[in-house]
Specification:
Number of helices: 11
Mean pLDDT: 93
Number of domains: 2
Largest sheet: 7 strands, mixed
Distance between the termini: 20 Å
Order of helices and strands: EEEHHEEEEEEHHEHEHEHEHEHEHEHE
Low-confidence stretches: 130-134
Shape: globular
Number of strands: 17
CATH topology of the largest domain: Quinone Oxidoreductase, Chain A, domain 1
Strand content: 15-25%
Radius of gyration: 20 Å
CATH superfamily of the largest domain: Medium-chain alcohol dehydrogenases, catalytic domain
CATH class of the largest domain: Alpha Beta
Helix content: 10-25%
């Protein structure tokens, strides 16, 4: 049986659970699938959160370098996947992939062989069916519930392997799928439009930096939260104002001063995010790196007629729109570091240090 190089996550815990192997069987595409030679893959919070069991309800702290290195003591495996169930081990992680199709299943046209593709990271329409009739909450996360991109080859539903024509490198293209689709999904749910003001937390990270660009593309004014050391880089992406992560938001911006909030941080600052939201405004969340448990005064929610959006499964138009933005040159990649796949631990250590702006990429 032909084999490939891959990183296996053997279980919950620290870096010792990541094993680089050169004898992993190359997957065979099933009926509605394609086999992709992975040319570049991105590092995401999801990879670390799954390995460390951070998704377990037994964990109440934010994502930290110590927790990412060693795992979270007391976490329970039975609810430690992003769907609330136990992951299966071993697992090849990796939600971001740029590559080329090298083989197809029996129900996929052979003309697709050779296509350069980006893999949409949340699989909803995996059986080749019409997207308009899918159950959007029956989803599989690439690299979590099925094997992903931290390997030389990966298989994916043909409907989720999007052909792309671009002069960008494979490394640059691999920075887009997970972070940019998550950001575009939040902006889509918020119906953010030209002339509105949006507050973006964690603006130097993968999703945050993507949200800054994508909100500007829509004609919105962006107020970003980032460390002072990263302020210039975030401003260069299109933020009109960059505030320190620990600033008093009400004092800096005033009450009811923004139309929408894009949040990947959570934690103790959460109540202030709602204070600066205008009446009728919207709050979208796709992460909680500062802590998943927050203080919510329900009076603020209902008396201000706020709308809350929890965002994981993509709206069906989001990824196709993202591919078009890339092809038209409307958004740009932000690369913080590049590592060979065998150095995944070094890549995740850099990721957890949170000194970077943008995405860290692995090359299989």
């Amino acid at each position: 049986m032909p084999t490939m190089k891959a990183v296996l996550m053997k279980g919950h815990g620290g870096f010792e659970q990541l094993e680089y192997r050169d004898d992993v069987p190359i997957p065979v595409p099933r009926t509605h699938e394609v086999l992709v030679r992975v040319l570049a893959a991105g590092v995401n919070n999801t990879d670390i959160n799954t390995r460390t069991a951070w998704y377990s309800r037994a964990v109440s702290e934010g994502t930290t370098a110590a927790g990412g290195a060693a795992g979270y003591a007391g976490a329970k495996g039975e609810d430690a996947g992003w769907t609330g169930s136990a992951p299966a081990f071993p697992r090849i992680q990796g939600a971001d992939a740029c590559g080329r199709i090298v083989a197809v299943g029996s129900e996929v046209s052979a003309s697709r062989i050779g296509e350069r593709v980006l893999i949409e990271p949340v699989f909803v329409w995996a059986d080749g069916g019409d997207r308009s009739h899918g159950d959007r909450f029956r989803a599989t996360y690439f690299g979590s519930e099925c094997d992903g991109a931290f390997a030389e080859y990966a298989r994916a539903p043909a409907a989720h392997a999007h052909a792309i024509e671009s002069s960008l490198t494979d490394t640059e293209l691999a920075s887009f799928p997970c972070a940019y689709s998550a950001a575009e999904n939040m902006l889509t749910r918020l119906k953010l439009g030209a002339g509105q003001t949006v507050l973006v937390t964690g603006a130097s990270g993968g999703v945050g930096s993507a949200a800054v660009q994508l909100a500007r593309r829509r004609g919105a004014t962006v107020v970003a939260l980032a460390s002072p050391a990263k302020a210039a880089a975030v401003a260069a992406l299109g933020a009109a104002q960059v505030l320190g992560r620990d600033v008093g938001l009400v004092a800096a911006l005033g009450r009811e001063s923004v139309d929408a909030v894009v949040d990947v941080v959570g934690g103790e600052q959460f109540p202030d995010l709602l204070e600066v939201l205008r009446r009728g405004g919207g709050y979208a969340v796709a992460g909680a790196i500062a802590g998943p448990t927050v203080a919510l005064d329900l009076r603020t929610l209902y008396l201000k007629d706020l709308s809350f959006f929890g965002c994981t499964v993509l709206e069906r138009e989001v990824f196709a729109h993202l591919v078009r933005y890339i092809e038209d040159g409307e958004i740009k990649p932000v690369i913080a570091g590049i590592y060979p796949l065998k150095d995944i631990v070094l890549a995740q250590q850099e990721f957890l240090a949170k000194r970077h702006t943008g995405k860290i990429i692995l090359l299989p």
